[in-house]
Amino acid sequence: MIDLVLVGIGTGNPEHLTLQAVRELNAADLILIPRKGDDKADLAELRRAICARVLTNPAIRIAEFDMPRRDSADPHYRRGVTHWHDAIAYAWTEAIHANLPRGGTVALLVWGDPALYDSTLRIAAQLNPVPNSVRSIPGIMSLNMLAAAHAIALNDIGAPFLVTTGRQLRDHGWPPGTDTIVVMLDGDCSFQHIPADAITIHWGAYVGMPEQILLSGPLAQTGPRIIATRAEARARHGWIMDIYLLRRHAASVTEDR
């Protein structure tokens, strides 16, 4: 039997790991690091750098495994994701069996927080055999880092804000009931599909990392700069993680109502 620990590592900056995260990593018997291909080799290297920085227990094993890729050509999004998760669960099972055949504690380093727009907990529930226990260690979420980097508050006084995805913004437009939204998992710059009048955007890529890029301003003027900057950064690094906040102001709110 194994105990599985999912450790939130925030945006990958070792200084942002919680003391609990460091303690849990040092208590593991095995740490698994996914490899996502040459174009995302930096992601595995960042995980290795975190381990080198915080591990003090020389008995811990670190093993790498090849991460399955999602079939983006599948026209049925949920079906494609389900098949992908099945493949990841199988890869985890094989890596654990190969490196910890007698059982023990296995840790995985999860970007951000395992509870927010991350599928690690769902994949853990598909493991066979079922782990003896699954623990989730919170990490600093990217929306917290975005707000800190821009020195802004996520919400207006007494007002709600909504966290959503690029797909939802593109397909359904601005969510009702709020004037502030935080958009994650947006590979298509979906802010292009909403009216830009009286909207401010605060955008960040690689937030909290040495490569951090920040842009903010009126959406109509800043949106095209973000699109160009994002494409250039992704081409340079082979991958990109970004997030943005959109806030509507009085003019657009009045018009909508």
Automatic annotation (TrEMBL):
Keywords: Cobalamin biosynthesis, Methyltransferase, S-adenosyl-L-methionine, Transferase. It catalyses: precorrin-5 + S-adenosyl-L-methionine + H2O = precorrin-6A + acetate + S-adenosyl-L-homocysteine + 2 H(+). Residues 4-221 form the Tetrapyrrole methylase domain. GO terms for biological process: cobalamin biosynthetic process; methylation. It is an enzyme of class 2 (transferase). It comes from the Bacteria. Coiled coil: none annotated. Gene3D superfamilies: Cobalt-precorrin-4 Transmethylase, Domain 1, Methyltransferase, Cobalt-precorrin-4 Transmethylase, Domain 2. Pathway: Cofactor biosynthesis; adenosylcobalamin biosynthesis. Its EC number is 2.1.1.152. NCBIfam families: CobF. This is Precorrin-6A synthase [deacetylating]. It comes from Gluconacetobacter tumulicola.
